[in-house]
Amino acid sequence: MTLEEFSAGEQKTERMDKVGDALEEVLSKALSQRTITVGVYEAAKLLNVDPDNVVLCLLAADEDDDRDVALQIHFTLIQAFCCENDINILRVSNPGRLAELLLLETDASPASSEGAEQPPDLHCVLVTNPHSSQW
């Protein structure tokens, strides 16, 4: 490894850390404003009804999910729809960390206690624009 390759690798890591920090901040604010939709099917419904208010689409998959053909088809369709409607897309390779960020706030909600045995579908998360002039 040359010095240039090492330096480029460090810069890439720093940029990814900054993106991760910004994503954590966006998710935290969206949770407090209740502008998050979680789940592939829920996301598809919202995208069908109100795509103009969606500002960010997170698609989370780990190595095991890469072998799930149905999930990959859903991802492809959601990505195509988001591209066509100018919705920003981020691929997340650590769904566990995404779950930590989202479930800190949602553990206290009544919806999470109903299906306590089955974890929520965090493969697709949408952040919508609040109906105020803040965004």
UniProtKB/TrEMBL annotation:
InterPro entries: GADD45 (IPR024824), Ribosomal_eL30-like_sf (IPR029064), Ribosomal_eL8/eL30/eS12/Gad45 (IPR004038)
GO cellular component, one term: cytoplasm
Localization per record: Nucleus
Keywords for this protein: Cell cycle, DNA damage, Growth arrest, Nucleus, Phosphoprotein
Principal location: nucleus
Pfam family, one: Ribosomal_L7Ae
GO biological process, one term: regulation of cell cycle
The organism's place on the tree of life at top rank: Eukaryota
Xref: SUPFAM superfamilies: L30e-like
Domain Ribosomal protein eL8/eL30/eS12/Gadd45: 21-114
Annotated family: Belongs to the GADD45 family.
PANTHER family reported in the protein's UniProt record: GROWTH ARREST AND DNA DAMAGE-INDUCIBLE PROTEIN GADD45, GROWTH ARREST AND DNA DAMAGE-INDUCIBLE PROTEIN GADD45 ALPHA
Protein name: Growth arrest and DNA damage-inducible protein GADD45 alpha
